[in-house]
Every structure is written in structure tokens, then in C-alpha cells.
Amino acid sequence: MADEVLSQSEIDALLSALSSGEMDANQLKQEEQDRKVRVYDFKRALRFSKDQIRSISRINENYSRLLTTYFSAQLRTYVHISVASVDQIPYEEFIRSIPAMTVLNIFSMSPLKGRIIFEINPNIAYAMLDRILGGRGTSLNKIDNLTEIESTIMTNLFERSLDNLREAWSSVEDIDPVLEEFEVNPQFLQLVSPNETVVVVSLNTTIGESTGMINICIPHVVLEPIMPRLSVHYWMQTETQKERQPEEYKSLSENLKTTKLDLNVLLGKTKITVNDFLNLSKGDVLHLDQSIHEPLVLASADEALFKVQPGHRKNKVAVQILEEIKKEAPNDE
């Protein structure tokens, strides 16, 4: 808790009260001790630090960008997905917060233990179905028991997105996600105990003209083995210790040697009027500013590299390199 800053008038009033005996110093000490006691709800145990929550948020920001690209390609319409919030709450509270009938995908995260839940708001789910079936992406804003065809479509759509989930978490753990169950009633799900702490990542989702939420519920038991890696210190340490192996340097060098490079040789420049340009015809001669006694310049990407002289080689126009053009070091002021 941040210390409260008193104004000068409040300080003067406090000193006056102490000197006059209206306020007891021992009473102030007791009040200060009482402030250190705060209420703690064991049903809402905070199992994740703020640093770990920020790391989970960064992972899912990357995941939301990957999902945006994936759904845009699959649905062929405007899609935008972004992280709205990342909170840790009891599992029971998460179940109560979602609609009674919704679309639920349950994924395993091998080699991590436990499973995670993807809850797709009905408004978004039906927009996806309508778009895949050839519609304009209009939402019906209702969920009944989905038909077998509709369930299969939704299952296939999210199964094909597992590569994005795998890529998003690759910086922390190499996972092999598998879609295990598809459900529409959250009351049938009992992944963990009601008081178990879960991280709920809420994604703002727009598909065409329909908007809604995609919620990702990750129980603490899933993330527990990799908790030490969900910290900025671990990520920075990993990046610092990451060094290229000799075989990587060799592979990069070999690939660079086979890279094609466009080279240009400028024969010279000249200026003419627009009228002369419009009246050019076969046989006309243009006078260039380049002397035949001076070397030409060989350049790549507009950067002068060598001085060369023109000639022929095996019945083809060619140039011979005379010298390298040295670059002048910039003056540090």
C-alpha cells in the first residue's frame, strides 16, 4: 500500500493535536499496526505473481495475432482478436460467468498435466458457422444443442488452429495440444475443484459485424511445472545465454554464398528536353557525361562497390573490376 502524503496544513494540525493532548502517540502506533492487517479470502487464493500474469498476457497477445491471421484465412472476412484482460479467479467463478449454453472446446497440453478450456461466445460461434456455410457471417445469438454437422465444423475449425497455440507457447514450453472434448453446457465440465485458481484470458473478437468474447481458462495445475519460466528474469536470462552453434554459422555462411545479388553498371548520364525526348528516333546519338578514359561504377542497391572497365567476354558484354571503392568513415562529432 502506498504511503499517504499529508499537506502542510494537515501536518500542522496533527502536531497541534499531539502537543495539546487531544491525540495520543501510542494510539497512532496502534492504528498503524492495525493497518498492516488485511482480509485474505482463501477461496480466491492468488497463485500467480503480477510478473507471471504479464508473461501469460504477452504469450496470449502473440496467440491473438496468430488467431487473427488464421481465422481471416479460414472465414475470408474481417477478423480482429485482441487480449482484453488476464485475471486469476476460482474455477467456480469462471463457470458461473459464462452462458448456460455456449461452445466449449477442451484441450490437453501434453507434456503439461491437466486440460484447458476454450469458451467461444454464442454470438461469435454462430458467426463462424454462418460464414463457413456460405453466409455473410450473421450471428443468431442463440445456442441450442448443435447438430452433428455443426459440432463437426466447429471441432475441425479449432483443431486446425492448434499449430497457432503450439507456436504461441513455444517460447516457454514445447507443447502438443489435442482437442479432447466438445461441449455446449459448462455444468457438465469439472476439470478441477471449484476453489482451484485458474487464469482466464479474455479475447475481444470481431468477425465481420459480429462481436463477442473468446475466454481461455488455464488451471493452475497446468502451469505449475513451468511457473519459474513465466518471469521476465527467466526470459532475459534465456536470451542472454542463447548463442549460435558453429554449425549454425556454417549453415548461414553457405546459404549466403548461394544468394543472388543484382549488380548494375552505369554507362553515364545526360539531360535532354522533353521535346527532344518525344522526337527521338532510330539512329539518334545521345552524348553522355562519362569519359571513355574514366572507369565506370559497379553498384548494388544504389551503393557504389567497384570501379570497372567495359569489355566483352565470350561474345557477351562484360566488365572488369579495377579497384574497390573505399567507404569513408563517418565523422563523429
UniProtKB/TrEMBL annotation:
Residues covered by the Flagellar motor switch protein FliN-like C-terminal domain: 255-325
Keyword annotations of the record: Bacterial flagellum, Cell membrane, Cell projection, Chemotaxis, Cilium, Flagellar rotation, Flagellum, Membrane
Record's subcellular location: Bacterial flagellum basal body; Cell membrane
Membrane topology: Peripheral membrane protein
One cellular component (GO) term of this entry: plasma membrane
InterPro entries associated with the record: CheC-like_sf, Flag_FliM, FliN-like_C, SpoA-like_sf
GO biological process, one term: bacterial-type flagellum-dependent swarming motility
UniProt main location, coarse: other
Domain of life per record: Bacteria
GO molecular function: cytoskeletal motor activity
Family recorded in the similarity comment: Belongs to the FliM family.
Identification of the protein by name: Flagellar motor switch protein FliM
The encoding gene: fliM
